[in-house]
Amino acid sequence: MLSKKQIALLSIGTSLTFWDIFNVPYIENYASKQIGEISSTLILSTEMLGYFLGGVINGYLASKYGRKFGLLSSMVLISMGSLLGFISLNLAMLLVAELLIGIGIEGEVSVVPSYVSEMSSAESRGKNVGYTTMSGFLMSLVVTPIAILLGEDFWRLLFLPSLFLAVIALLFRIKLPESVLWENKRYDSLKWDKDVVIFTLIWFASYFTGYALFSTPIFSLISSHGYTPSNLYFGYILYGDPLGVVVASVLNDRLQRKYTSSLANLLSAILMVIWPFSGIMFLPIGFAIMFLQGFKFPAMYTYTAENLGTKIRTLGYGIADGIGHLGGAVGPIVFVLLQDHIGLAFSTGVVGMVAIISSILIMAFGQITNKIPLDKIKG
């Protein structure tokens, strides 16, 4: 089992991953002033494509060669992409950088919750996955003021911290033990699990809505309500996200994850329909939406790993979360296109309602998992 020190140090790499997730809306928004709004959406969409590739590739490698291999490869890819983004001179270089970062990010996401779940007791599994997740989401507290401070002239410096954190994470992860559950199953053959398809649909719908909240139309929505500069007020709303992660991490072993995962998606959808018409409650409701987006991750990260068997866990997780991230690639583009046809307010509600699909699927197909050993759930 992992010690508290190992959980804390493992979280360094996870915080690096989420640094790169949270800096994307600022990079996209700042870069749009140079390359245009439509072209800038390709930055986020390209990173989402990297998520798809990273989940499948790193998930398979971690299933075949061990969880530790996957933990190391994700850090290498993120550092390479960050270096290229830092020195990027044009859109092509920037897109390649975000592709590499996306592959590394999803490589991390597909392995860490599985590894931590396998190396934790049934009673502390949710808490430990929650704490590693929390370390990542708390990076939004750091990214937002730095991104606003750097502004349009120095936004490429947002890539720099990844280079330093990756080195620290690599040095520590070399010393981590291999997953005992994986070692016990390493020579078993991979067997397909239908729940991989179900959780792929769950993540696709959830990410469709979630990443639409990080796209350019959201900044326009904020400005249309008189809150300028929109970057600043987006930062205020975004603080709901890490708060949601903190609360969910504390409660992750106390509340049934099936129900919290479903409810977070359902309430997000309802609030996004209301949000554009909320008047003086615009900022509080925006904050609540981000809170729910953050709240869902500790529960859903743990819950996805729990619903998959040991041998296919990282591969299945990588497929579900990786292909699911294509929803995050499609969502922002659909949002931009919809606002030209049905208006900004109604398009916000439409992309929000997609999350209801996730809520329904979790309730229909998800298992009860809290405090049950992983090998007793799916083997």
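the 2nd protein, sequnce then structure:
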Amino acid sequence: MKSNFKQLVLIVIISLICSVVNFDSYLKGYLPSFSQALCSSLFIVYWLLHAFFMARKGMRFIKLSSLYWGIGASLFVCGYYAKLSIVFIPVTLLFAGPLYGLRYFINMPADILFTMVSFIFVYSVSVIGFLLGKHVNRLTDSRVNS
């Protein structure tokens, strides 16, 4: 439990840093700059590597990732459609902001579809990272036992 809390705090800190980097573009609706795209790309790489190393350590991560992105997507959709700024703005800063730089690579308008595609993409990357970590553990274990 303590480990999950530490992971969550680290994820929130990194999310807020990336959101601040992307803030100017997504606030004004501009296309992101290369540096913002790089920041969003590094954010995704962080999720991949974090999940990979959690699996290597034998720690649970899929549940945390599923809850994080599931709750984020649910709050984002509710805040968006109910026009609840008190929900929508913080959720945008924490979940959508770090991913805004992906628009540099993806030719989509910055709307709810783009946000949901981004959420699903990062969640998928984290699952892949976790599965890769588990696979490496199995390969390592089989070589040690051989």
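The chain has a mean pLDDT of 91. Residues 27 and 87 are 16 Å apart (CA to CA).
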